[in-house]
Amino acid sequence: MSIAENPLTKTPNACAAPVPAPSTATMSHAPGAPHPHDEVDPLALVIVVNGAKTPEGHLQASAEDLYDSVARAITAMLHDARPECVARVRAWTDDRIRKIVKRARNRAWQQIDALALPHVTVTVGSATVAVFAPLRPSEYPSVLRSAQVAGLQADATGRPPHPDAITVHVNDALHMSTGKTIAQLGHAVQIFGDECPVEAAAWIAAGCAVNVVPGIPTGPLAVRVEDAGFTEVPPGSLTAAISL
């Protein structure tokens, strides 16, 4: 499924210039409130990376191709017109926009990509990812449940970004894994679509390329991602940002 089949339909808002404090992807929980980990069966967008390896044992997907494929696949799912996708995405965005990143290879990957659950599969260069409409853990088929979460490590090749790419800044001081970085990238492009629909529509038409760079810039930001602290980082950490 191509992104062009799922155009943005939201009314444009004023995001022609960066704004100081737009919405954040996730917020730390209030003191005394149940922590998100206490949720028994939470909805989450499930991102599965094809973890095929090179003969040397490295991940076949480069970091640059992986980030581009994730941005494209998440954006396609967010605008997927299939009724089940629409319903699941709406229920998920009304709650926390949690994202789970898994990896699978060889036969396990083939079985996951062949699942009847609604999903979008995107290949960019060396990377292939599948993004499933939001699911609860109780809904996972066994092959998806057993796909691994930890251990995903993609290496950068120095490939130049696409000229129409948006720059996503990640907080390198947090030393996030590749999987965690993918989730924060997903949050950033999702908020970008919500907060800056005019710019996002042009970005989607150009192919949804991203340029992921280390370090959060000073000054106004169009998008800020503050992580809820499910994994790796403290609640409320500024993990990623987009500046226009």
Describe the overall structure.
This protein has 244 residues and is α/β, with parallel strands linked by helices. The protein has a single domain, classed as Bit1 (3-Layer(aba) Sandwich), CATH 3.40.1490. The chain has helices at residues 63-78, 83-93, 106-113, 142-145, 178-195, 197-205, and strands at residues 44-50, 99-104, 119-124, 127-135, 166-170, 210-214, 223-226, 238-242. The strands form two sheets. Strands 2-1-4-3 form a four-stranded mixed beta sheet. Strands 6-5-8-7 form a four-stranded mixed beta sheet. Helix 1 crosses helix 5. The longest helix has 18 residues, at 178-195. It is globular, with a radius of gyration of 17 Å. The relative contact order is 0.24. Residues 1-14 and 16-37 have low confidence and may be disordered.
Key attributes of the depicted protein:
four-stranded mixed beta sheet, 19% strand, alpha/beta, disordered N terminus, globular, 244 residues, 6 helices, Bit1
Radius of gyration from the alpha-carbon trace, in angstroms:
17 Å
Q: What is the count of structural domains?
A: 1
Q: Stretches where pLDDT falls below 50 for ≥5 residues?
A: 1-14, 16-37
Q: What is the fold named in CATH at topology level?
A: Bit1
How is the biggest beta sheet arranged? 4 strands, mixed
CATH level 1 name = Alpha Beta
Strand order of the largest sheet: 2-1-4-3
Number of helices: 6
On the 0-100 scale, what is the average pLDDT? 87
Which CATH-level-2 architecture?
3-Layer(aba) Sandwich
CATH superfamily heading = Bit1
Number of strands: 8
Strand content: 15-25%
Q: What is the terminal-to-terminal distance?
A: 28 Å
Please identify the structural class as seen in this structure.
alpha/beta
What level of helicity do the residues show? 25-40%
The dominant shape is: globular
H-E string: EHHEHEEHEHHEEE
